Amino acid sequence: MITIRKGTEQDIPAALQLVIELAIYEKAPNEVEVSVEEMTRDFNNNVFDFFVAELNREIVGIALYYYKYSTWKGRCIYLDDIIVTEKHRNKGIGYKLIAALIELAKKEKVRKLEWQVLKWNTPAIEFYNKLNTHFDDEWLNCKLIYNQLQNFNAEKQEMGR
Amino acid sequence: MITIRKGTEQDIPAALQLVIELAIYEKAPNEVEVSVEEMTRDFNNNVFDFFVAELNREIVGIALYYYKYSTWKGRCIYLDDIIVTEKHRNKGIGYKLIAALIELAKKEKVRKLEWQVLKWNTPAIEFYNKLNTHFDDEWLNCKLIYNQLQNFNAEKQEMGR
Asked: What is the mean pLDDT of the segment spanning A38-61?
């Protein structure tokens, strides 16, 4: 039996383990820069929250989310990551996790629940399609990373706009 | 002279006015569902924060942001919207606003500052290019909106995954 419940501080090591498992699968283990200590601090500061899926007292899935803000729609929920451990996929666990998040979004009456999916991740897109998800491919993701931020010098880079 | 400073509760009516001005320009004024009261409540609950650009005591631009969470990079800053009122564009105000946000990201040592841009918004893309922004077009934005969330019924929609 799968149980879905809110994650607690005690679940963070298992949650991070799932994040790392997926990063290894995606051949990007070094991209995971957070630690249990850092996640614990941020969780206790309410930067994010998460649901866990438990099977025989083992955490086999997580859905990690936070509250975002939109100038048009106000406070909304953003699903950063939904992970089910490989050997327990195709058992409806991902659905139960996202259903728990939708129930939360419903209860909190937010105007949007949002997330992103890789364009080539067809199984995930089909899964989200069954929820009648709105997809939008009009946007580019933009980022500046740590070294760029640290080396930024406003005067030097002044661009006259 | 342009002054950039953190926004306060008193600046929210002017900030929302800029949001509405842009929505009208984009022919989507009805998409703005937030009110001054709602923004004020969320601002006081630290859901978002913003910088304002002031010219002769008038607010002519805003950069509205919040803290997001990434399972790989932890607590990061997300720029939801940067707006400069039409008659004061091309005076470097947008740059000063984003520079203030980069300085904040630098000070807080976050691993990423992120935002999105419409694919066809060439002037904005050129502007961000000068900051050596990383662009990523591999993702689709996904959302469920208010009515979908309110009408969700987990049992009915069970999808066996």
From this structure: 97
